Automatic annotation (TrEMBL):
Residues 1-20 form the signal peptide. The keyword Signal applies. It is found in: Periplasm. Belongs to the thioredoxin family. DsbC subfamily. PANTHER family: THIOL:DISULFIDE INTERCHANGE PROTEIN DSBC, THIOL:DISULFIDE INTERCHANGE PROTEIN DSBC-RELATED. CDD domains: DsbA_DsbC_DsbG (cd03020). The keyword Ribosomal protein does not apply. One of its GO terms (cellular component) is periplasmic space. Transmembrane segments: none annotated. Residues 116-283 form the Thioredoxin-like fold domain. Keywords: Periplasm, Redox-active center, Signal. It comes from the Bacteria. This is Thiol:disulfide interchange protein.
Amino acid sequence: MKKTLIAAALGLLIGATANAEMTLKDAAEAKLVAAFGPDLKVREVAQLAKGQVLEVVLIDGSVMHMTPDLSYFTYRDELYELTARGAKSVTESRQEPMRAASLAAVPDRDTVVFPAKGEEKAMINIFTDIDCGYCQKLHTEIPRLNELGIKVRYLAYPRSGIKDRETGQLTSSYEKINYVWCQADRGTAMTDMKTTQRALNITGQRLSKASSPDQASTLEGEYRALQSQMTAMLASSKDCHSPIAVQYELGQSVGVTGTPAIITEQGSLIPGYMPADDLAKRLGVL
């Protein structure tokens, strides 16, 4: 009889604990689903640090940590607040004013400027690279951005860095973007360099998929002509004490990890490519 009572008591205790854990799991999942949508699923929740922190394991195995009231969580080194409108990055909110101040300190004369047409309604800074395919694609959107009243300032961010770690020589990425900064008409130089590099990329891809010897021969001729054009541009480049290295370091300090990286005048970081009209909506211009 005594053993039966003990077993029953243990069963109730285990059941209560399981229900508490299930309730906590369900509550965490409900909070996250409200912010991110129904595809987000929680596998398990564990209380850490004497209940002061919740470890939330998602169904894909990724881990986040939440406050016990489920109002804040950290994910990939960023702190977020869960609000009625979704997740808001507290980390980003703190970085924005510092980012804005750092970029405001860069004068137009050190950038490549594409001014707004008519009334200036917004301004963006874009950390860019010549070899980057999406940077080339975004550059084709510049006329539309300017037409919508958005001023664009380019800053340099050669993705391969300034010098090759093994050889100590200047990287190709640096040499290409340095060419732009060392021209009297930087805007035209930026367009010429990105257009040529984009044509090289496309022609190279077509050449690799050529369906006949004749097509391959034609494409090879086009590719060599584009290479000669690029070589001629780089050969004409001179050391003009450009701010490329300084801007590369600035990009790293404000959170740029790839290109293109768009930063608004208020300091908000928008990583990657975005069509002009979508970007204008993001800026409140459309």
